[in-house]
Structure to design on (279 residues):
């Protein structure tokens, strides 16, 4: 099996507080300062590698974390879970959706006609049901399915550097995630510690998070996407600690096991600062 790497975050934040040496409380950074700094992080990340890398050996992670226990964790992934390769995704706030979209499209390319017939109209109907206008999502849908309608297109080549095309496709998954949150607010009230009468606050949150490009995914979005796509998302967490047993596997399983089809499973690996996917 392979890994496709992604991330849930852009890494640690620098201290943007005032450098005034007087004995005053540091000032809170403005929204403009925060946005400027996040853009700087993304620009730095963009200069370091492709949106989606070619397949790489899993052992490449050992070079980034050269300690014995981390090597043991990688060995566990290889020997117990049969994962030996990864693809790295750029840490730009879209990496979770990019990883899932890349893997799903790769799987759909094995039988594109069936995938298009089964999901294309269904996903559009789900978006319309929550009030998304077709003028909003048609271009995103076309971008996603274009890689199946034109099988000669190499997804790796197209997504390695073409941020516009890649982001257009992953916006379809973002809107589907938002659609499930909007249509099933009761499923997510506990995450936000809200009462039922405050369900409209979830829709506003979804507009700021799931609907917005370059905004990192969280557990709510992982669950919502798995539910609306009826897939299984498996996240192996290498953790940031040095404990040998600090390898946990989380499963978000919302597959429908009522026919002879193989369930659609996306595997992700989360390591310190990053998320990766076994597929």
């Amino acid at each position: 099996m392979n890994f496709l790497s992604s991330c849930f975050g852009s890494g640690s934040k620098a201290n943007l507080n005032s450098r005034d040496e007087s004995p005053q409380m540091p000032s809170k950074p403005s929204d403009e300062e925060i946005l400027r700094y996040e853009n700087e992080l993304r620009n730095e990340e963009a200069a370091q590698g492709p949106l989606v890398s070619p397949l790489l050996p899993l052992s490449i992670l050992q070079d980034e974390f050269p300690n014995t226990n981390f090597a043991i964790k990688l060995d566990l992934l290889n020997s117990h879970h049969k994962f030996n390769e990864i693809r790295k995704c750029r840490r730009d706030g879209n990496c979770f959706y990019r990883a899932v979209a890349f893997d799903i499209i790769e799987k759909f390319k094995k039988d594109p006609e069936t995938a298009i017939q089964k999901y294309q109209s269904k996903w559009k109907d789900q978006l319309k049901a929550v009030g998304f206008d077709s003028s909003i999502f048609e271009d995103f849908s076309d971008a996603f399915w274009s890689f199946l309608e034109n099988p000669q297109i190499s997804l790796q080549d197209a997504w390695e550097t073409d941020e516009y095309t890649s982001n257009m496709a992953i916006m379809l998954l973002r809107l589907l995630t938002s659609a499930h949150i909007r249509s099933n607010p009761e499923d997510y009230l506990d995450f936000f510690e809200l009462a039922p009468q405050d369900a409209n606050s979830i829709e506003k949150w979804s507009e700021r998070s799931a609907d917005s490009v370059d905004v990192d995914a969280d557990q709510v979005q992982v669950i919502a996407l798995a539910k609306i796509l009826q897939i299984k998302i498996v996240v192996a967490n290498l953790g940031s600690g040095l404990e040998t047993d600090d390898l946990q596997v989380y499963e978000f399983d919302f597959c429908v096991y009522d026919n002879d089809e193989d369930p659609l499973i996306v595997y992700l690996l989360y390591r310190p600062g990053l998320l990766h996917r076994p597929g």
